[in-house]
Design goal:
This protein has one domain (4-105): 3-Layer(aba) Sandwich (Glutaredoxin). The protein has a five-stranded mixed sheet with strand order 1-3-2-4-5. With 106 residues, the protein is of the alpha/beta class. It contains four helices and five strands, in the order βαβαβαββα.
């Protein structure tokens, strides 16, 4: 299961108005640590399919959303529930840290 692609255009509907908790991975193609967590995001989107919506937002192509959430370094992963940020991870971290934060959301 591939993560969803979030954009400035669909973020409101896909992320903020989602019935499920949402994990947003702010990334860019040139970012090494972003590439390190990409496989983790793919695994999690399969493991939590139907429980959590997981997606990626390219900060180079979608600067409005990145600015709105104050994303200054990437990867930044936001954990949203009911349209509000409940938690954040900045940088490449082990999969277990993502699982711990997801389990608090669901």
């Amino acid at each position: 299961m591939k993560p969803i692609t979030f954009t400035d255009g669909n973020f409101d509907v896909e992320a903020l108005k989602s019935d499920l908790p949402v994990i947003v991975d702010f990334w860019a193609a040139w970012c090494g640590p972003c590439k390190m967590i990409a496989p983790i995001m793919e695994e999690l989107s399969g493991e939590y399919n139907g429980k959590v919506k997981i997606g990626k937002l390219d900060v180079d192509e979608n600067q409005q959303t990145a600015i709105k959430y104050g994303v200054r370094s990437i990867p930044t992963v936001l954990f949203l529930k009911g349209g509000e940020v409940k938690d954040t991870i900045i940088g490449a971290v082990p999969k277990a840290m993502f699982i711990e934060k997801i389990n608090k959301l669901i």
